[in-house]
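User: Hi! I'm a student and our assignment asks us to look at how structure tokens line up with a sequence. Could you show me two examples?

Assistant: Happy to help. In each example below, the sequence comes first and the structure tokens follow. Example one:
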Amino acid sequence: MDVPVDPALVDDLLMRVPDFRRAYEPDGMTPAEFESFGASARTLRTFIKSYHDLQAAIRDITLPDPDVKAR
């Protein structure tokens, strides 16, 4: 964290990867674009899935499915 990234590497990424530029530059995207931006959408989907997985685990403990045999 304390060692700066080589500016040549950042410049190369900025030149080659449009999504890197969008994410890296302060004005690379509008707030409205952020939610549908690939990395943001994947992160949000992962958090939401984890929340639902936790809810399912708690539900199965507190109210076991009577149609599924206990292990």
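Example two works the same way, sequence first and then tokens:
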Amino acid sequence: MIVRPGIALGLAGLEPWTIQSARRGVKLFAAPADQPRARRGTDVVLLAAALLGLGAAVVAYPPSAFERALQRFLSSIPSLFDPVWGFLSDLPWFWAILLVLVALAYRRLFVVGQALAALVLGALVGLVASRLAIGDWPHLSDAVFGTGQAPRFPSVRLGEATAVMLTVAPHFVRPVRALDRWILVLGVLGTAAAGSATPVGTLAAVLAGIVAAAAVRLAGGTSIGRPELADVAAALAELGVSATGLAVAEEQVAGVFHVRGADEHGAPLLVKVYGRDAYDTQFIARLWRSLWYRGATTRLGLSRLGAAEHEAFVTLLAASGGVATLEVVTAGATEDDDALLVLRGDAQPLGAGGDQVRGAWDALALLEAHRIGHGRIDPTTVVQVGGRVGLVDFADAVIAPGADGVAAARAQLLMTTAILVGPDAARSGAVDALGADEVAALLPYLQWAALGARLRRELKDAGVDVDLFRDETATALGIDAPEPVRLRRISWRAAIQIALLALATYAILSAAGGVDWGEFSSAVRNASPQWIVAGFVVAQLPRLTQALTTLGAVPAELPFAPVYTMQLATGYMNVALPSNLARMAVNIRFFQRQGLPAATAVAAGTIDSFAGTVVQAALLVVLLLFSESSLAIDVPFPSGGMRTLLWIVVALVVVAVLAVVAVGRVRRAIVDNVRRFWPDVRAALGALRSMKKLALLVFGSIGTEVLFAIALGLFARAFGVHISIAELLVINIGVSLLGTLVPVPGNIGVAEFGLAIGLVSAGMSDETALAAVLLYRISTFYLPPLWGFFALHWLQRNRYL
């Protein structure tokens, strides 16, 4: 942007870089060299997406029929255009070199360093992609310099230029960045048309460059791109606003540059500059909330100008509804494509009096009456304007929020007042403003997911525990603390389980790919029905021995029938949770209903589950040492794969221990919980001193494993294959322990895949092994939920759960 004369802001005291730029009337770099740098959320998204795309391109090699047809089409273009394609394929390199030379001339050594790092990393990523796709390392000089012998997947030379261009471009002004993108597009077209790389190889080169550029930018950061005060003054002049005394505001919001000043009458002004970082930051935040939380209504596609105009519109709407807020002066875009929102007024922090709390609730009530959802209430947005309590900063506001949005805004205000006046005063203020019933309805929304990032930080700094505040409020209202409403679309645990299920599905499909389904059908038709019936019967008996194990883990004397029914109910729960977790959850609730303290119930449930795992491991070791059985399962691990896996496990354990030791809050929480629950845990462990309890625990676990192994062996006999009990135990226990390490619900996929491999290693064909495993899993996992459903309802009806 050109700095015009006549602006009510002197240049004295500004950076020499700005003065020189103003005199020249041209600016190449978006910000001075000493401006702070930041890491952008968009780079994280780009890095993840580019890595996934590059992986897909590697998997898709060699070229498909469609890609080969596209290559033939490109090669049919008349040769008279060859010089054009050659020039366009070289253009990204020329442009990348030019950008680096300009940065060097302007002594932007950090930019030059980033460009060199991106060059090296881009070449490395391209070489690795070529090795994974083709199977051999390409010749280094041919790949790096793009000679005639360079690999056609990917074009490493294009990847290097892309990495340099995308790394350096964010430091330059917007016109340079736009030209950078066009040159990259032309370079991609030229590379594909010249035939120096396959079409997918050209795309892979660009993805490799994006990976390198995003990684370098995340490592070193890029300029935050804030305009200088002279630029802000020029932008205000464009919008017809006279401003004096411009200064950087103390309070800054991620992505939006705040500048304070005064108008011609001396009234305070707040200028919000929505630049490149504002769009990036807000887009990532909106995308995250839309994907992660239910009821997210903020639009993703808001541009910089759209974001400024949206905040201006909602601010005007709130002011017209009687809410005390700042006055909108103007909103618009500048020549440099920055969007400005200019507000007039003086907003002061909220005081700590009771009248202030009631005023805050009255302001929120006015917003609700006019169907406005603020979206981000915290101690910085609840302020005094003109002697009245009001609200400011409507950047995240929505019109006509849903019920979740209204409740979340109330929860945010309640926790904000808890910070300002303390939990007790905030609680009483909310009851006075809303009534006890409305506050009770609000309690399920008092959770982290309903609060903004700044409010969560303020709560931590103030030492206010949201969960404790919710429980204390419920106690004060004379009600039981309700469960938090589900605001997240998906939890981390669910996301991990979905990924594991996808991996298990892939493993099953891969294993099924080598099965002759004709022979499979023949094997099923020729199977012995007597052995199948016997297998189904024996497969139901382990619930009896599991009930004995449970009786041994509990310090109290319990009736056998309800405990056995609980084991049947566990079969129903296994559909939704990993088997050990399902059993533990049902056990703990069952024990609590039997009058055991919570800590004792947790300890007993843990002992029950842990004892089963220990017995499995001990049996496996004994069988491997003292029998002829072995784990000869042919799983295609890469060279050194098991050693690498072992080191990864060791590293994770070390990191977890260090985290507990280093993070005081985690360490104190663990120590406090251990001290609080240890007496009950010790009582649960003391019950194991009884030989009767210990025998039930150990022999019940052994009996369970033997019965499961016998059932698997009976299904194998149905197909004419006899497998020793020792081998069956090794196979079944090994797969079960593997399922403990991979927490897929019900071990779906893991069990089928592992058992099939184990039976094949024991002498069965692929087809008969798969048939036996399917029958075994149907009898032990897929059918028990039918009667487990009725068992669960019986337990609930009789108050056992």
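Here is something you could point out in your write-up. The mean pLDDT is 77.
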